[in-house]
Every structure is written in C-alpha cells, then in structure tokens.
Amino acid sequence: MGKRVVITGLGVCAPNGVGIADFTQALQNGKSGIRFQSKLKDLNFSCQIAGEPLVRDNLVNHYFTPLQLRGLNASGIVFGVLAGTDAWKDAGLSIASKETPDWNAGVIFGTGILGVDKLRESIHQIDEGKVRRLGSTSVLQTMASGISAYLGGILGCGNQVTTNSSACTTGTEGILMAYERISAGKADYILTGSCSDSGPYIWGGFDAMRILPSNYNSNPAEASRPMSATAVGFVPGSGAGAMVLESLESAKRRGATIYAEVLGGAQNSGGQRGEGSMTAPNSEAVQRCIVAAVKNSGVESAAIDTINGHLTATAKDPVEIQNWCEALQRSGHNFPYINSFKGTIGHCLAAAGSIECVGTILQFKENKVFGNVNCNDLHPDIENLVASAKIPHQTLDFQPNITAKASFGFGDVNACVIFGRYKEPE
C-alpha cells in the first residue's frame, strides 16, 4: 500500500474566472467566459469566439519580477504562473530560501504548445537578420518545459520539476503522475496542473479542420453545447488550472486544509486502432481506462455519485456517455450525476483537464453539483441512456463522496482519476 495522497491547494486562471472565488461563483451561476474575439474576425476565422481568461496587467505584476516581465510574450506561462502560485499559497506552503531549494517539493505542470506568440516574434527577428535582438528569455518562453521551469524557480522546488504533454489529457495525466510519485514516497508535495496558450496561432488549426461552431459569433454564450442535440463543435479556450497534491502525513503534520483525496486512476491509449484515430477515441480503450481507474482506486462503481466528463460538445458526446454506462454498468436513474464545464469555458485544450479538475474538487468544498448549460435540448441518444435528472441544468445542493473525472485527447490517449471526500484514518 502506498501513501495516501490528498489535495491541499487550488488555483485557476479560467475564461470565466481568474482566482478560485470568481471561478467558483461562475460555475455555480453558469456564467460563461466565451466571448467574441475581434482578432479572429480580422483574420477571417469562421469561428470568431473563444474562451480566454481576462487577466489585468496590474495583477500580473504581483506574480512576476520586473526582470521576468521584460519581453514576456507567452500567455500560457502567464496563466500557469498565476494558477500555480495561487495553488501553492492556498496550500499554505512557503517559498524556499534563496540559498537552498525544498528537496521535498516538485512540479509536474503540462502544456500542449507554449510561447507561440514569442516564437512568431522570434522568427520574424531571425528572418530580418536581428538574431541578437531575441533576448535571453526567448528559449525559456518557447520550450515546452518553460512553464515548469518558471514555477520551479519561483517556488524553489528541488524534487522532480518537469512538463508532460498529452493533448487534452495533459492536466488529468499530470495529476496521476504526481499522485504516483507521492504515493511511492518520492516527494511530500507536488504542484501539478497544465496551461494552454491563447490566440489565433493556437486555434487556427482547429478552425481549418471545421470542427468549431461558426454560427454563434453573435451569440457566444450559447455556442458550447455539451450533450445537446444542437451541438455543432467545440469552442476553443485557454487558461490554466493547478492543485497541490500532498501525502496525507505531510498535510496532517502541517495542519493543512484538505479539499479531497486522490483515490487512484488509470491511463491508457486506444492505439489508434479500431474506431480510434488521431482525433477520435477508441471506445474499448475508454471503457478499459474507466474500469481500471475504479479498480485502482479500491472503490465499487456503484459508489461513484458524480462524474465530470470530457464532453466537448461534438458528435462524440453520446458515444462518451455510452462508454460511461458500459464501464460502470449503470444507466437510467441509476447513473451518477454528470456535468461538463465546457459549456461555460469552452475546450481549453491542454489546460482543459486541470481547470476541470479544479472545478470538480470545488464541488466537494461547496457541497454542490454545478449545472450544465446549453443542453436543455438533450441529445436523444443520451436521453435514451441516462435519466435527464442526472444531467442537471442548474447547480444542485449535493454532497459528493466519490467523483470520477476523465479526459480524452488527440492521439487516442485517455486518463481517468477518482477523487474522494477526505475521511480521517480509522
């Protein structure tokens, strides 16, 4: 048996709320962070809306030194440092001294692609023969591990400091990586999360694939429609979510607030075989991942009372619900409550799993199940599988005990984590 692992800190930089208080209120009230983006219209995008955190310049000054801000042009790093630093402070952890790192503290913070705007800026300077004007931070802002390097240095972490990348599964995968390291006794606490850059150079490829909604440019808040019969594609988003995972003995020793416990989880791939492809999940793999996560967590599928799905507002939503039903062997009124936060934040790509995991943990804190938006016209295939009462449109008063959270990413990769309400050792 490994060490028990709990969650002691949360931070978020989401399209509908920067900071835990604003994000919580937004989820409770179904407030959307999806807005019209004039820059996308100017560039002739078909989909001219997106979810992007609104970060004030004076807020950024509290997280970076003037030297760090010089030439900083990587939105993902800004989002990640805000969320990660907030989670660290929320956990009551101190920043290591200037002389010695904290050997028991680590960072596992993922991303998909980082510093695209900085890279574009650098390419232009190189093409113009101005390579010496790139500045000393161009490499730090464009390497994938830039976000973990920034956070590791700001906090002074001396344990594993690394970046993972598995498309939309990144954030959920990072939680499992941190859980396994702490459970094995290799670290006391790890800051884990993920971030995604924002802007046309991130979202353009998806617009070219024609998988984004183009008929909601004048009505952005209704565009992202998970589980809806009228869903026509996901809305791109960006941001970052972060949490501190910690061994139970360390948390008890520090007297830390415990939000929830990580009971276990699983990761796998469909190998892009069968119905699986670079962009679509293999249903057998998804079901195997969920089943393995439940088994690894030591719980019965019947004990799961809430699910936060991947549910991107595409034609694959009914398939995902079918996979949950098959994996848990539950349907109808016996199905857990299920929700998707993408109706209000869009699909935040590499940051999706971490932002949504933060929202999932907040349901334990608030004793709520946050409502789904834009799915009053529930897809008939979903309605045939799950009782509509299990897909609440408004936030419900409910005390979750065991929650399953899954993410499924491009490349046919899957991750499922099981969270539990913390109970004192007997």
TrEMBL record:
<comment type="similarity">
    <text>Belongs to the thiolase-like superfamily. Beta-ketoacyl-ACP synthases family.</text>
</comment>
<dbReference type="InterPro" id="IPR014031">
    <property type="entry name" value="Ketoacyl_synth_C"/>
</dbReference>
<keyword id="KW-0963">Cytoplasm</keyword>
<dbReference type="GO" id="GO:0005829">
    <property type="term" value="C:cytosol"/>
</dbReference>
<dbReference type="GO" id="GO:0006633">
    <property type="term" value="P:fatty acid biosynthetic process"/>
</dbReference>
<dbReference type="InterPro" id="IPR014030">
    <property type="entry name" value="Ketoacyl_synth_N"/>
</dbReference>
<dbReference type="InterPro" id="IPR016039">
    <property type="entry name" value="Thiolase-like"/>
</dbReference>
<feature type="domain" description="Ketosynthase family 3 (KS3)">
    <location>
        <begin position="2"/>
        <end position="421"/>
    </location>
</feature>
<protein>
    <recommendedName>
        <fullName>3-oxoacyl-[acyl-carrier-protein] synthase 1</fullName>
        <ecNumber>2.3.1.41</ecNumber>
    </recommendedName>
</protein>
<dbReference type="Pfam" id="PF00109">
    <property type="entry name" value="ketoacyl-synt"/>
</dbReference>
<keyword id="KW-0012">Acyltransferase</keyword>
<comment type="subunit">
    <text>Homodimer.</text>
</comment>
<keyword id="KW-0808">Transferase</keyword>
<dbReference type="Pfam" id="PF02801">
    <property type="entry name" value="Ketoacyl-synt_C"/>
</dbReference>
<dbReference type="GO" id="GO:0004315">
    <property type="term" value="F:3-oxoacyl-[acyl-carrier-protein] synthase activity"/>
</dbReference>
<dbReference type="InterPro" id="IPR020841">
    <property type="entry name" value="PKS_Beta-ketoAc_synthase_dom"/>
</dbReference>
<dbReference type="InterPro" id="IPR000794">
    <property type="entry name" value="Beta-ketoacyl_synthase"/>
</dbReference>
